[in-house]
Amino acid sequence: MTVGLLAVGLLASGCVRVHAALVVSTSDLVSGSVLVAALPTAESSEGPQLEIPTEMASRVTTKAYSADGYVGNTVTFNNLDFDEVTALAASISNENATYHIAFQRAGDLVTMDGSVDLSQLPPSGVDVQLKVNFPGPVTRSNGSQDDETVSWVMKPGGVTSFSATDQYALGNSRGWRFWALSLGGGTAIISVFILGLALLARRRNLKKERAYLAAAPV
User: Fold this and answer.
1) CA-to-CA distance for 61 and 39, rounded, in angstroms?
2) Cα–Cα distance between 163 and 51 in angstroms, integer?
3) Of 105, 139, 166, 193, whose CB is crowded by the most CB atoms within 10 A?
4) pLDDT of 119-136, one tens digit each?
5) What is the DSSP string of 158-182?
6) How many CA atoms lie within 13 A of 130 on its CB side?
7) What spatial distance separates the first Cα and last Cα of the chain, rounded to whole Å?
């Protein structure tokens, strides 16, 4: 989903395409992919070049992109923590655009806040989109919400702020209802199992008693 947005800082004035998407896990780790491309110019025919922090090299890969006249890269990343997402954004920033993105946890609430300044880009020919999928119910956002996914379309020629708050327990991949049902079902199964053992033991004892009585002298 979206960290391509983070690469907007590399884009010079002109027609650009940034489609980014993030997936946030219940372990507070972020994975995703982002397309960062632009129409070739006299100064550059290769599109925006991205600099990936060396400490993230094992979890971030890039692949060349070319379509509809746009050239650039698709960046894919896995299991970056919240601070690393912010650091990745900072590592590819420059004077052509400014942005901010940060995740914070308070109890079971995780808040994402950020902004993108596209004031240096023309009002036409800019396609910058962000989507974030959260693991729990989204309680607040200023984007377009579809269940647990929130999306934004960034407007060129100005600053766009984005924010969302999600509710989930750290490390809990299932809702409390699932665990309540599982616990209830597990308790019932254990009770049946114990009852079965008791009946089996009772039957064995009856067989032993009958055998003993049959073998006893009259």
Assistant:
1) 22
2) 26
3) 166
4) 878 777 788 899 999 999
5) SEEEEEEEEE--TT--S-HHHHHHH
6) 23
7) 85
